[in-house]
Amino acid sequence: MTAAGAQSPVDLHRAAFTMSSRPLALLGPDGRLSDANSVFCTLVRRDLASLVGTSPDWIDPWRDGRVVLSSPDGSLVEVSLALVPLPGGGTLIDLDPWPEARQRAAERAHREMRAIIENAYEFIGLLSPEGYLLDANRTAMSFINCDDLDVLRGRPFADTPWWAHSSEERAQLIEAIQRARQGEFVRFETSHRGRDGQLAYVDFSLKPVTGDDGAVIYLVPEGRDITQRKRAEDELIAAKLEAESANRAKSNFLASVSHELRTPLNAVIGFSEALLSDALGPLEPERMRDYLRLILAAGQHLGALVEDILDVSRVELGHIELAEDVVSPDEMVDSIRRLFDPYAIGGSIRLTVALPSSVPRLRADSRRLRHVLLNLVANAIKFTPAGGSVTIRVTVGPEGMGFHVEDTGIGIPAEYHGKVWQPFFQSDAQHARPHDGAGLGLAIVKRFVEALSGQVSLDSSPGQGTRVSVLLPPERVIAP
């Protein structure tokens, strides 16, 4: 009987057998293997489950001394075999590889490990503690389009092509090497210029390897290409910002359109009440007609705004229906000029038309095209201060017919050029807005022009005015 907590001799023998650094196995009285330690399994290249209950017929000859092991893959290993009889009829098998066999086993293990490292997805290398390059795997070499490690071996890692693209990131690496030399594991995100010239993002680390005395003997640099993940993160952030921008634009639209609807409604209701309540006393016929004209103008303004909103809804749903007819561009442009002349004169703005000597007719939806030009001219006058000018220009060429509305107004910052075509967007919405409008004009212009198979473009900068160009394809131009 053993004392409480003490191990029995059997337990001690079992632990010694299992933990031994020598390849050991037990053979039962029936000549079959009953147990083996992990070192034995590794040497004979078989797992314990496949050994137990089998005869070791892969050891030849079966006697003490130098023998040959046949591995499952057909390879042969020379070892020294010692057979130790055990009480009860069993036998202890003790193997010891010969020096040549140890060397071959070590070489095989090295080749296997090298195969793993060379074919790893990660960039893996080996540095001296001072940061000189000793080795790099195929993945790392392929990244810089280099197949000769010898031209880089022995150079400071910071001076190799992996870090040539950025002095800032090279300095970051040098600082990381200094920290890793002190035994610290260092990890950071960096970028590298790949063989295709594109910038790739890398999750990079430096791991110190210590010897028996605890001193750092190697540094292992490792990198994983995370470019796709970074791009996905950037796209996610961009989508989030775009969604937030769209929400702000719609909020601005609701605020703007509420104001736009309320103003003509107030005029309609106010003047109607004045006429019906006799609050101003008997009205002369001329004054009554003035009130009615104001009510009519407010109603027309309200109707135009509602029609714009409906147009955007139809466009978003893909319900634009074109009524093709023949259009005389010079007559259309002249009628638009005459329509806006009073507004331009009232704002001290010079409104002019520039036409070529001969303007061919177009096959288009005249109502939609007129709506496009009305929106463009209205915008130009709205955002042009007193003393400025607005020009409606028509051009004809091999690329088709162009309608250009140019102004000397406040202009649009470059960062908004791609957004002004979105419904509800207004570049001045983030400031106190001095201009009326719901932000639908250019959105409608773009949709209608595209429905006509045309293109619309914007050229503008703050303080330098704006030029919006509509180009209809040559197949819409009717030859003279």
TrEMBL record:
Entries under InterPro entries matching the protein: HATPase_C_sf, HATPase_dom, His_kinase_dom, HisK_dim/P_dom, HisK_dim/P_sf, PAC, PAS, PAS-assoc_C
Membrane-crossing residue ranges in chain numbering: none
Enzyme Commission number: 2.7.13.3
This protein's UniProt keywords: Kinase, Membrane, Phosphoprotein, Transferase, Two-component regulatory system
GO MF entry, a single one: phosphorelay sensor kinase activity
Positions of the Histidine kinase domain: 256-476
Residue ranges occupied by any PAC domain in the UniProt entry: 186-238
Pfam family, one: HATPase_c
Catalytic activity: ATP + protein L-histidine = ADP + protein N-phospho-L-histidine
Keyword Membrane belongs to the record: yes
EC class: transferase
The name this protein goes by in its record: histidine kinase
Protein source organism: Magnetospirillum molischianum DSM 120
